[in-house]
């Protein structure tokens, strides 16, 4: 792999984490004007619409012929459908802090699944670095007085499943990106997500007799701005950057970048919501950054494995 290509992949991974970190801020703003399911519908509707423009004009070419479509459909049901559904219902029975703590362990789950299904090996130092990054996130939440209440087992179980699903997504996407381009995977994901959340939103409003409220949120400029960020940046651009990075970087390495979003969300809260940054925020952030850096620099990757991955993809694209 060319050094420039690898550097761009890591840039995409960092950009992905930054975008997701700011998404918490815009999600809070959007939820002040719409229900969660409606927000998801508008979010993925905006993302799918924006990506459909270059597709319709032929600027982005998609080719699904002769490719394992059922695996791509499975990928789309894992993320965003499975992840957001499990997360939404999980947060109804557990706190957001519990969700944040559990989500921090996603890189560990990804590392295990990547070893089982992709035969991706990690060195002892990489494993320790991943756990260091996880400990940084957990440290921040614990110092804030948060923890995991085992009486919320239903919510905790659903949140754990959401982490398992996103870990499975990273592993399956890494495999599928040998056959599909990042554009093809992303477009399919966004289209399925929009269709599913639109159906769910319409069903909920029709059942409740509140169909007229479906368009109410778009009367707010704050909601429109938030949805555009969540749709275009946090759904479309983040999916493209994640899928591109996964096509070049091992799933276990890519996954640990997700913990950087905690650092970004802390900074965003301080800059835009006036939230105070405490010493434990800084300590935890240093642990996270050190862990992400170690997981990616202390690599025991074999050149033969890299050549094999690139060779497989080259043959698939030929």
Summarize the structure.
By secondary structure, this protein is an all-alpha fold.
Structural summary, described in words:
- With 318 residues, the protein is mostly helical.
- The protein is 77% helix and 0% strand.
- The chain is built from 13 helices and no strands.
- The chain has helices at residues 3-30, 36-56, 69-93, 96-103, 106-117, 124-143, 153-176, 182-208, 221-248, 251-256, 260-272, 279-297, 303-317.
- Helix 3 (69-93) packs antiparallel against helix 7 (153-176), helix 3 (69-93) crosses helix 8 and helix 4 (96-103) runs parallel beside helix 7 (153-176).
- The longest helix is centred in the N-terminal third of the chain and has 28 residues, at 3-30.
- It starts with a helix and ends with a helix.
Point out poorly predicted stretches.
Answer: 301-311
The general outline is globular
Distance between the termini: 18 Å
Query: For the residues shown, what is the average pLDDT?
Result: 89
Strand content: under 5%
Task: Using brief descriptors, characterize the structure shown.
318 residues; 13 helices; 0% strand; mainly alpha; globular
Topology:
Elements: H1 3-30, H2 36-56, H3 69-93, H4 96-103, H5 106-117, H6 124-143, H7 153-176, H8 182-208, H9 221-248, H10 251-256, H11 260-272, H12 279-297, H13 303-317
Helix pairs in contact: 1-9, 1-11, 2-8, 2-9, 3-7, 3-8, 4-7, 5-7, 6-12, 8-9, 11-12
């Amino acid at each position: 792999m060319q050094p420039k290509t690898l550097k761009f992949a890591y840039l995409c991974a960092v950009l992905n984490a930054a975008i997701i970190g700011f998404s918490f801020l815009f999600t809070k703003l959007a939820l002040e004007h719409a229900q969660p399911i409606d927000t998801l519908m508008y979010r993925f509707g905006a993302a799918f619409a924006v990506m459909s423009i270059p597709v319709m004009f032929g600027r982005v070419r998609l080719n699904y012929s002769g490719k394992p479509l059922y695996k791509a459909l499975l990928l789309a049901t894992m993320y965003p459908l499975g992840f957001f559904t499990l997360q939404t219902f999980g947060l109804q029975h557990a706190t957001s802090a519990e969700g944040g703590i559990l989500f921090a362990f996603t890189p560990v789950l990804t590392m295990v699944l990547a070893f089982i299904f992709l035969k991706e090996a990690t060195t002892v130092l990489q494993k320790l670095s991943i756990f260091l990054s996880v400990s940084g996130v957990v440290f921040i939440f614990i110092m804030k007085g948060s923890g995991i209440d085992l009486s919320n087992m239903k919510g905790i179980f659903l949140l754990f499943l959401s982490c398992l699903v996103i870990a499975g997504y990273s592993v399956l996407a890494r495999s599928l990106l040998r056959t599909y381009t990042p554009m093809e995977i992303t477009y399919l994901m966004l289209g399925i997500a929009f269709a599913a959340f639109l159906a769910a939103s319409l069903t909920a409003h029709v059942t409740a007799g509140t169909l007229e409220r479906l368009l109410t949120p778009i009367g707010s400029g704050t909601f429109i701005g938030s949805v555009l960020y969540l749709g275009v940046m946090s759904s479309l651009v983040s999916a493209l950057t994640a899928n591109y990075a996964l096509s070049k970087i091992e799933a276990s390495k890519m996954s640990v970048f997700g913990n950087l979003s905690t650092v970004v969300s802390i900074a965003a809260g301080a800059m835009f919501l006036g939230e105070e940054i405490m010493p434990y925020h800084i300590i935890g952030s240093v642990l996270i950054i050190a862990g992400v850096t170690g997981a990616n620099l202390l690599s025991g990757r074999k050149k033969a494995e890299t050549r094999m991955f690139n060779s497989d993809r080259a043959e698939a694209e030929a």
